């Protein structure tokens, strides 16, 4: 695999190091001269100096043969532009973008720049996972594959509490894939009883979330 990484900050540099360690061919593009010189001393020919939004810089890096483009600059507009160029001009099939400001995620989605990751969102999900009061956590969203994985805390007095997994009236297109308890997580069987306080992982089709969560939330 050949990957082009644009943005030589901590994310881009560490990602490049890890890809190289896995035997991946990588070119890292950095527009700041001071950063470029520091990374060039470490990585040599792997690093190229230039603005990753300029076509000649991308072409010099070999974007036309890239299997993967990763845009991790500190500017969301640049990241969107880089992914659009990679997809529309050079027909790169796989690209990943960094979202610096979570409020800009809507623009990435509008322009179909996916997957796009936000460190803020990732940390928020970790917080939600560690704080049961949040109730529901979106662990995984795969819009292209039409698939979601959510984590739900089973509330006292809800419809699911005390029932076996096979007795749950889950809508078609959803399935319980894991149960987390004090002693650890496990894949449930049909006769596994769901207890209040359990954390349940459910794989489901998009749009089924309200029907699924209604089973595990306390009756209002």
Structural account:
This protein is α/β, with parallel strands linked by helices. It has 2 domains: 2-117, 3-Layer(aba) Sandwich (Rossmann fold); 126-216, Alpha-Beta Plaits (2-Layer Sandwich). Helix content is 31%, strand content 25%. It has helices spanning 10-21, 33-43, 55-60, 76-88, 105-110, 119-130, 209-216, and strands spanning 2-6, 25-30, 47-49, 68-71, 95-98, 116-117, 136-142, 147-153, 174-181, 184-186, 199-204. The chain has a 6-stranded parallel beta sheet with strand order 3-2-1-4-5-6, with helices on both faces. Strands 7-8-11-9-10 form a 5-stranded antiparallel beta sheet. β2, α2 (33-43) and β3 (47-49) form a beta-alpha-beta unit. The chain is elongated. The model has no long low-confidence stretch (mean pLDDT 88).
Q: Short summary of the structure?
A:
This protein is of the alpha/beta class and 220 residues long. The protein has helices at 10-21, 33-43, 55-60, 76-88, 105-110, 119-130, 209-216; strands at 2-6, 25-30, 47-49, 68-71, 95-98, 116-117, 136-142, 147-153, 174-181, 184-186, 199-204.
Any chance you could write out the topology, listing elements then pairs?
Elements (H helix, E strand, L loop, with lengths): L1 E5 L3 H12 L3 E6 L2 H11 L3 E3 L5 H6 L7 E4 L4 H13 L6 E4 L6 H6 L5 E2 L1 H12 L5 E7 L4 E7 L20 E8 L2 E3 L12 E6 L4 H8 L4
Parallel strand pairs: 1-2, 1-4, 2-3, 4-5, 5-6
Antiparallel strand pairs: 7-8, 8-11, 9-10, 9-11
Largest sheet: 6 strands, parallel
Mean pLDDT: 88
| Uncertain stretches of 5 or more adjacent residues | none
CATH homologous superfamily title of the largest domain: NAD(P)-binding Rossmann-like Domain
- Care to count the β-strands? 11
The SSE string, one letter per element, is: EHEHEHEHEHEHEEEEEH
Q: What's the N-to-C terminus distance? A: 53 Å
Kindly name the structural category.
alpha/beta
